[in-house]
């Protein structure tokens, strides 16, 4: 037999190890997926996004608030945690950063004022994982609540768009988190919630075993496509001839040998892609956005 080994009959299938983000990245654009997860070194990204800095700052402050002793869990403390951990990347200038820091501080204090500090979550930034005979999926839940006999997945959102029950229902990530939490903690977990801090709205969906099963089968289908492309990448990488990226002194970007398996999906989302400058099709489909363009009042 040659260097390329054929799988033996009856051997177990290799599990595809993934996160919900990896699966969604494949759905959005296989080329971006390849640049993110397979190309080494990964092509240089564009500038950081201000809305990501805002979102991370809020998430970090809320996680730190729940880890405080009970007596210190006040709205004012949450605001101080936000200010102390504020991330400045992506903002136009110091004035814009300071303005959004104040808005985020008020947002966090308003949200925390509605919480019961005695209602201890089961987990904060809790990592959960689950395996099937096809995938090994893991992810980190913003907050996992204990509500009566069931667990509830809570996901914080800070974007400018108010979310609906349809967003909660259709979220592959939330469904996989619920499945994984149920398996890890051996308790029912069907309710998922999107907490939109700018508006104070909460989008809720109550899954059934059937709807969670549909999401899991969808995840396995996505994983099967991505795994096949991954294997093709590994097989063909040694034979691929890289071509230089314009203006990068001979560094290579791999397109043609892999586009059969990692085709671009140009569209409006290309404006927000970290790798837009490396993708001619994306550049034709969308205009680059300023790093602060997705801030709530932009």
Automatic annotation (TrEMBL):
Q: Which UniProt keywords apply?
A: ATP-binding, DNA damage, DNA repair, Helicase, Hydrolase, Nucleotide-binding
Annotated region (Disordered), positions in chain: 240-260
Question: Which superkingdom does the taxonomy of this entry point to?
Answer: Bacteria
Give me the segments passing through the membrane: none
Q: Where is the PD-(D/E)XK endonuclease-like domain?
A: 19-280
Looking at the keywords, is DNA-binding present? Answer: no
Is the ATP-binding keyword given for this protein? yes
Query: Per its UniProt record, what Pfam families does this chain match?
Result: PDDEXK_1
Q: Kindly give the Gene3D superfamilies that the UniProt entry links to this protein.
A: 3.90.320.10
UniProt protein name: PD-(D/E)XK nuclease family protein
What organism is the protein native to? Actinomadura keratinilytica
């Amino acid at each position: 037999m040659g260097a390329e080994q054929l799988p033996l009959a009856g051997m177990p299938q290799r599990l595809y190890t993934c996160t919900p983000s990896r699966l969604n990245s494949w759905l959005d654009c296989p080329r971006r997926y390849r640049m993110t997860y397979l190309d080494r070194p990964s092509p240089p990204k564009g500038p950081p996004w201000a809305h990501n800095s805002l979102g991370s700052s809020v998430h970090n402050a809320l996680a730190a608030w729940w880890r405080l002793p009970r007596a210190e869990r006040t709205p004012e403390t949450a605001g101080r945690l936000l200010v102390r951990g504020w991330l400045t990347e992506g903002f136009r200038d110091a004035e814009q950063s300071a303005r959004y820091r104040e808005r985020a501080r008020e947002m966090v204090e308003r949200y925390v004022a509605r919480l019961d500090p005695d209602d201890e979550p089961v987990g904060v930034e809790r990592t959960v994982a689950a395996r099937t005979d096809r995938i090994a999926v893991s992810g980190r839940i913003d907050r996992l609540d204990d509500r009566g006999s069931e667990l509830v997945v809570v996901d914080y959102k800070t974007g400018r768009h108010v979310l609906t029950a349809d967003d909660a229902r259709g979220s592959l990530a939330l469904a996989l988190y619920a499945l994984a939490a149920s398996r890890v903690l051996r308790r029912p977990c069907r309710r998922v919630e999107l907490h939109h801090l700018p508006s104070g709205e909460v989008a809720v969906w109550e899954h059934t075993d059937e709807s969670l099963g549909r999401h899991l089968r969808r995840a396995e289908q996505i994983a099967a496509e991505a795994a096949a492309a991954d294997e093709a990448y590994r097989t063909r990488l040694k034979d691929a001839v890289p071509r230089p990226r314009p203006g990068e002194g001979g560094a290579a970007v791999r397109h043609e040998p892999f586009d059969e398996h990692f085709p671009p999906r140009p569209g409006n989302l290309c404006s927000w892609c970290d790798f837009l400058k490396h993708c001619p099709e994306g550049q034709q489909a969308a205009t680059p956005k300023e790093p602060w363009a997705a801030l709530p009042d932009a």
